[in-house]
Amino acid sequence: MSEQPFTLDDLKRILVEAAGADEAAPLDDDILDTTFGLLGYESLALLETGGCIEREYAIALDDDTLSDELTPRELIHTVNERLAAARAA
Amino acid sequence: MTAVAVTGMGIAAPNGLGAADYWAATLGAKSGIGRITRFDPSSYPAQLAGEIPGFEAADHLPGRLLPQTDRVTRLSLAAADWALADAGVDVAAFDPLDMGVVTASHAGGFEFGQDELQKLWSKGSQFVSAYQSFAWFYAVNSGQISIRHGMKGPSGVVVSDQAGGLDALAQARRLVRKGTPLIVGGAVDASVCPWGWVAQLAGGRMSDSDEPTRAYLPFDRDARGYVPGEGGALLTLEPAEAARARGATCYGELAGYGATIDPPPHSGRSSTLRTAMRTALEDAGMAPGDIDVVFADGAGVPELDRAEAAAISEVFGPGRVPVTVPKTMTGRLHSGAAPLDVACALLSMRAGLIPPTVHIDPCPEYDLDLVLYQARPATLRTALVLARGHGGFNSAMVVRAAQ
């Protein structure tokens, strides 16, 4: 189990792996508070992204966590909550 | 009835990527058949394929599309882009409901599906990509082309193996005639992966020769099966009058179409291919003597070759029409083969040259005027393209130079 927090860099790496990179809209630090919907990640891309995070970090995300209205900051926060809960368990 | 014109073509073939490369290779009798490189074929009885070299998907498609696409979809998306660019079509100038996509497919995205099935059994269901829900599917090429270009009009997919490529063009032609101003139609197939390979081996008609120049020999005394390949062509179809009005260059028209199903094997009844040919001629308002060249299906299986040669001789008279099988340079591309032959026929008309059938020493009893060894100069206004699919599908299409 990783002791490191889940960071924006981790999310960006997984987004590229799960949904590919968009040359026209690079993933930079400004994306933290933009919704995934506005970033161009549709439901299936988010499903695949969530699946990658679950596999790599051995946590489970709720089905309704991943929505178009979610922002990267919120997702990072949720993942870190789950990681902390898993470590405490 | 509305004349339906071909205004653009996108080609991906084992002997040429893009229309210019493909046409130069085809005229030069350059074959794309060789030992499989995409996987190690050592343990399989058939080891040759027509593979497309040098296609780097990332050079042609946005990164967002790569994780969710099989090779066949990447090739299809590139070919559709090329066809639209060739036609000089600005999709933004069309109402989305005025544009549609009709493709054919024989296997869908088998390589993607194979990878995901391997993850399923080796790691577990949570490792299977969410994109598996559509990336393997027969209709995926129509869907992805439609999404990429915002084409929301009538669309679909046809599955009838090698005949499917003509059936898709025929459906595209119907849709244009019913009033849709622009359809991307045709097929690109690609399933050179172990799963696709064993599925085809089970059919029992693949050549087990390991000599690239002697493996796929339609109409030859030594015919011993077919070599599969990957690729095909997508075409843009528009009402001829509207295309001319917008200043488009027309390669030619899809003038006639006919399709039949063969009687069951061992029924004792003969192939209905000749009926498909006659129906296509009738649909085009033409007599056999009006056809300048036949692009044969060329199964490479003796009994199928015999039936096709007999049908051609019966409709046209023995040796009365030049016949060619340029797919001897690509292998059989399943649904992709016939749209590639339609594109090839249109390029032949433009150049005044019938491309050759390569590697063949023809059976004399077939009574065919095969164009062998090198391209033959000819004045070409019309061509008949034939395609036969596994399961008894026969399709025929008359292609005519632009009026």
Automatic annotation (TrEMBL), chain A:
The keyword Phosphoprotein applies. The keyword Chaperone does not apply. Residues 5-83 form the Carrier domain. InterPro entries: ACP-like_sf (IPR036736), PP-bd_ACP (IPR009081), Ppantetheine_attach_site (IPR006162). Pfam families: PP-binding. Keywords: Phosphopantetheine, Phosphoprotein. This is Actinorhodin polyketide synthase. It comes from Streptomyces venezuelae.
From TrEMBL, chain B:
One of its GO terms (molecular function) is 3-oxoacyl-[acyl-carrier-protein] synthase activity. GO terms for biological process: fatty acid biosynthetic process. PROSITE patterns: KS3_2. Keywords: Acyltransferase, Transferase. The keyword Ribosomal protein does not apply. This is Ketosynthase chain-length factor. It holds the Pfam family Ketoacyl-synt_C. Belongs to the thiolase-like superfamily. Beta-ketoacyl-ACP synthases family. InterPro entries: Beta-ketoacyl_synthase, Ketoacyl_synth_C, Ketoacyl_synth_N, PKS_Beta-ketoAc_synthase_dom, Thiolase-like.
